[in-house]
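Note to self: the last two entries modelled the partners one at a time, which told us nothing about the interface. This time every component goes in together.
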Amino acid sequence: MVNPLSSVRRRMLPDVALPGIADVRALPDQQFAEAWASIEFPADVKEHLLRTVVSKFHLRRAVPFEAMPLHGVVLLTGAPGVGKTTAAHGLADKVARTIGGLGEWGFIEVDPHALAGSALGRSQRSVEQLFGQTLAEAAAEGPLVVLLDEIETLATDRSALSMEANPIDVHRAVDAALVGIDRLARQNSNVLIIATSNFPKAIDPALTSRADTVVTVPLPDRDIRRRILEHSAAAVVAAFPGAEPLLDSGTLDAAARMSEGIDGRRLRKAVAAACAQRPEALGNPDNVSGEDLLAVLQAMREAQ
Ligand SMILES: Nc1ncnc2c1ncn2[C@@H]1O[C@H](COP(=O)(O)OP(=O)(O)OP(=O)(O)O)[C@@H](O)[C@H]1O
Ligand SMILES: [Mg+2]
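The predicted structure of the combined assembly is written out below.
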């Protein structure tokens, strides 16, 4: 079921075109529910993440900050392609489904690249407007999940910025982002901020120290690689029944064994690449074989 957007959130929709906002939607959201279901993490990791976020959300609303300094920020870090953004979308949906009684949930995804890329003098103003106005107004309307994807772009470690190479504006924009995150979270106990990063070392420590929960998403282990490959293969077979050999259990076992170090995104792409592997198959997924998949993974491994 899709929640109707409240009046303010509906008014915000045109803001999608504003720099810095990548997505606005109401929660729960079916697409995000599917994202959560598609993510394969080690046993109980997803459930534990959800329990942690939900319990801290409840605690933050009821226990004084002086007794328990919770900022409402969860940080997901890890290598590219390990499922951070997908898990963040899914988590937003799950939190909204789990915590009831607060009214209609909203979701806003920030595009930090658009903000950081603004012309000189504009980034700081864009960041201040985003946090002080757009997000604050949305938070005043009801419970809100804010996704700050690739947060290192917005909250770059200031101590690592050289003054010569980076104009003062960059420093000011980072300051504005940190103040904005702090203020938004402090003033609204019904806001959950999910941040993701490939480069946790590049994030300003002022942000990291505010995260209530930091989860490092690992590269997939053998069991998880097998499940990801099987999931993608099953989707291909559903559309192209001739691709059935991709689901052969010996092939999947071998594929999982030989793909150590390959992230979830590249595993899924490997299934697609297998369909183009042999010239005789003419690019028709109905003609793909198990050996095609193993050959693609072998090449990926050698290229690492
Ligand atoms: N553990 C996993 N289980 C299932 N699918 C995965 C997993 N990891 C990655 N994928 C798939 O790989 C693709 C990329 O995932 P996603 O964009 O969430 O990764 P990311 O960690 O945010 O990457 P980046 O750091 O490059 O932004 C998605 O299609 C996702 O479903
Ligand atoms: Mg991502």
